[in-house]
Design brief:
There is one protein chain. The protein has 339 residues and is mostly helical. The protein has one domain: Hypothetical protein af1432 (Orthogonal Bundle), CATH 1.10.3210.10. The chain contains 16 helices and no strands. It has helices at residues 6-17, 43-52, 55-59, 78-95, 100-109, 118-128, 135-150, 157-164, 175-198, 209-215, 219-234, 244-262, 271-287, 294-301, 307-316, 320-331. α5 crosses α8 (157-164). It starts with 5 loop residues before the first helix and ends in an 8-residue tail after the last helix.
């Protein structure tokens, strides 16, 4: 009998250790393009590694989470948010004996398609692009098409499904995807409270007392409450859920954040400028397709993709700084010299 390689040994251990409701690596629906399996890493671990090594993942460090161009080193970027989602999701997955590799891959990939300037950029592209723009769909497009010069990362069906369905309205096919869906909200609500307090936009005392009584009075306490609640209520079940009281409190504190932070004029004072910048870039490149980088012209000329779709891809992939510098180079005259 042939000796099993390390990957196969790990796949066997998954069946011995994980919950019967877990997504087992050797039962994956597979990839769009068949490829030789790794002798060390199961498929979801391999997906996680591909995402971490992608260009889109690296760009997240220079993309807005909530506060546009904040003055300070401790505000979250899109990358920090992504890592916090992954941390929360792994804690839950491990406690429920679900597949941590799949959970982490989905979490690390869920925002790869986010625009510069956070949701302001997303709103702008949604207005100007004829088919509309949703960052969850763009994240899937990044891993299927845009990475590796049009080849994509060739991720498994389960990872792509979890990325696509991480929003509130999503319905992931795996429990691991459901964990990320909850973990995303838990991460951004608590992180945004922390950043908003740091920015003197709100104070802890402004959060309604009934919500503080249920969830806690610090970020640490709230995270502890929310994560414990999911674990306790989801143990040995074929679905991921929270208690009604805690889930309602999470929704209510999210509403509080929309009223006091996400639409706060002080916090969002520069967003109209960011939206105008994105719209102008979209209009410019649609009128000057030849100015797109070669990788994107390849998608149009060789792959036959819609021009507006590819312009949207290019702008969505920009970091905040790159978008600003590109806009300046296209609109502001520069000094010249004969030397």
């Amino acid at each position: 009998m042939a000796t099993l390689n390390i990957r196969q040994q790990q796949e066997i251990r998954e069946h011995e250790i994980l919950s019967p409701y877990a997504s087992f690596s050797d039962c994956s629906k597979g990839r769009d393009r068949q490829e030789k399996q790794c002798d060390i890493r199961p498929c979801y671990q391999r997906d996680r590694d591909r995402i971490i090594h992608s260009k889109a993942f690296r760009r997240l460090k220079l993309k807005t989470q909530v506060f546009l161009a904040p003055k300070g080193d401790h505000y979250r970027t899109r990358l920090i948010h992504t890592l916090e989602v992954a941390q929360n999701a792994r804690t839950i997955a491990r406690a429920l004996r679900l597949n941590e590799d799949l959970t982490e891959a989905i979490a690390l990939g869920h925002d790869l398609g986010h625009t510069p300037f956070g949701h302001a950029g997303e709103r702008a592209l949604d207005r100007v692009y004829k088919e509309g723009f949703r960052h969850c769909e763009q994240s899937v497009r990044v891993v299927e098409v845009l990475e590796k010069s049009g080849k994509g990362l060739n991720l498994t069906v389960e990872v792509r499904d979890g990325i696509l369905n991480h929003k509130t309205s999503g319905n992931p096919m795996t429990l691991e995807g459901c964990i990320v869906r909850f973990s995303d909200k838990i991460a951004y609500v608590n992180a945004d409270i922390d950043d908003a307090i740091r920015a003197n936009i709100i104070t802890e005392d402004m959060i309604p007392k009934d919500l503080r009584d249920i969830l806690g009075v610090t970020v640490k306490q709230r995270l502890n409450t929310l994560i414990h609640d999911i674990i306790i209520n989801s143990q040995d079940k074929d679905h991921i859920c929270m208690s009604k009281e805690v889930q309602q409190a999470l929704f209510d504190i999210r509403k509080f954040m929309f009223t006091n932070v996400y639409t706060n004029p002080l916090a969002k004072s520069e967003e109209s400028k960011a939206e105008k910048l994105v719209e102008d870039l979209f209009e410019y490149y649609n009128s000057n397709i030849d100015r797109l980088p070669e990788d994107f012209l390849y998608l149009i000329n060789e792959k036959g993709m819609d021009k507006e779709r590819v312009v949207c891809d290019y702008i969505a992939g920009m970091t905040d700084n790159y978008a600003v510098e590109t806009y300046k180079s296209l609109t502001i005259p520069v000094s010249w010299s004969v030397y």
